[in-house]
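Replying to the earlier thread about multi-chain prediction with a worked example.

Input:
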Amino acid sequence: MAEKLKEQQAIPVSKVQRAAKFISTGAKVGGNYVKHYAKKMVNPSMDKEELHQNNASDIYNSLSELKGSALKVAQMMSMDKNLLPRAYQDKFTMAQYSAPPLSYPLVVKTFQKHFAKTPEQLFDTFTRSAINAASIGQVHQATKDGKIFAVKIQYPGIADSVSSDLKLVRPFALRLLNMNERELDHYMGEVEEKLLEETDYILEVERSREISSECAHIPNLKFPMYYDEFSSDRIITMDWIKGFHLKEWLDTNPSQTSKNQIGQALWDFYDHQVHNLKKVHADPHPGNFIVQENDQLGIIDFGCVKVIPEDFYEGYFALIKQDLLMKEEELNQIFFELEFISDKDTAEEQSYFKGVFKEMIGLLGRPFHVDRFDFSDDGFFEQIFKLGDRISNEKMFRKSKQARGSRHGLYINRTYFGLYNLLNQLQAEVNTTKPDWLK
Amino acid sequence: METATAKKTNKKDYRKLILEGFRTHVLEYGTAPKSIFKFAKELKMKEEEFYTYFTSFESIKSAVWVDIFDETLAQIEVQDVFKTYSAREKFLSFLFTWIEELKKNRSYLLSLYGEGSKSMIAMPKEVAEFKERFKDFANEIILEGKETEEIANRPIISDRYDEAMWLQAWFVLKYWLDDRSPRFEKTDAAIEKSVNLAFDLMGKSAIDSFLDFAKFLYQSK
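Result:
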């Protein structure tokens, strides 16, 4: 146990730690700009090459220090060098987390803009300060007629700054990922689309309702109700979900049976979404789950939902069939379809990447190859991190300028990593159900 | 008695009429009228009659600023919660409400103070009266902030806080005039962040403790 604890501490898991990491990078990058413009004043002919190199190496240093974090895994599982979209996303949300809470006058103003009423006029009580930070807003608690509500308010100007923020990192990304512009846009487009969706609260309510009703039959899951009369495109009002956040709950030392029940509910929730709805809550971070009495799992925040296209779905999940690793022909075709390898690769590159991907798939598909998987097995995660480290340091991998992997993979990978990580935190053993065609 | 009140309302109406007329003229032609004579003619008034209310276009513009400010204060005072606010929140609330009031006059303000005109670089003269009124209001907030110790009392500097708040309000106005974001959300963010910074600077901080300590060391030598 002591050893396990130490291991967990070694990996910077908490948001604060990762935020600190990124802030120091941010400062360095800022410094690089200052240096660049200072030099440019002396020598106007200087181009930005040096600047980009400095930036890229500082960002890369910082990223590689985050070993074992979801970041590194994301990089690997996407079987690609597309770590930056994920890294950038973290950075983006981090910036929001570090933003000071909205002042109460601004909350009042937001309410007046949308409902022409103050929060006090709308509800019986309304907390003056925020109870929780959401990724791009904050949550207040309100009551009316004996009911308790959670009211999420978006920070002003966020929606507007998504595109310009992403443009800001483009030069870093180009340098860092060693990709050409067209290929980078391929991923950036996906990230931008999702971030913009997250700022659309009307869409979020719609999707929350849809997914919650589709998942209502799954045992041990609880979803809040949403209230249109108190919601707008910047404000969402839903039932207040009482309970503990995952981390707090784990601190209460729940029994293994309880942990398994929560873990199973999580697995079933994702299994149903991915394989039946083809639409998935793509943000499995611990803050979005609340454990209630009797080990019920409350799910909040459907800001990030990924719709899975049919052809991508088939190719992607065909890969986790265990016997597939044998059939060379079929595998080649899927690799081409999912854009892991392309005609532009040399024969040498093709065979190298095929080898790499096969190794990863074998490892990452492991929970799917058995009927019941124990996610408390830290050895399994250790193996994943090691493989990721090894591959990203290989010359062949770093040299390749191709973007690898379909853009749709970005969020699906992230979802599965998040899920694996959550289950690992829970130390849960779950029945890894899968659709019939994969058995 | 009756005639007196009648005269009074009449007087007020003229004042309003001139203000309205001036705003409409600016909105329609993009600039102030050429001369008082022309403007009075437009309003079907005699020029000398006009001078009983205003003596120049500048004084009209000044009255517009003051009206906006008065309306803002009236709006704030309606909110019950305002009394319970801290000094920081009161100032925030003022700026948010002020911007809402300005919004009603955005086109007018843009024509006179927007991009094309250079008058915003130096502060136009016609805001002087508004500035005085604003400073009175700011001083109330500052006084309250000092009582609740939100604002640190520093020799010399703290007498200039009202001026600093005025500059900040002016900054917000300029930012808003250039703001192109939907619903002027960026202005909201700018207000929020700049007020937080200002109050953090005005509040007791490490520097005060440092100065206090340095003073102690120096004096006790």
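The radius of gyration of chain B is 21 Å.

Feel free to reuse this layout for your own posts.
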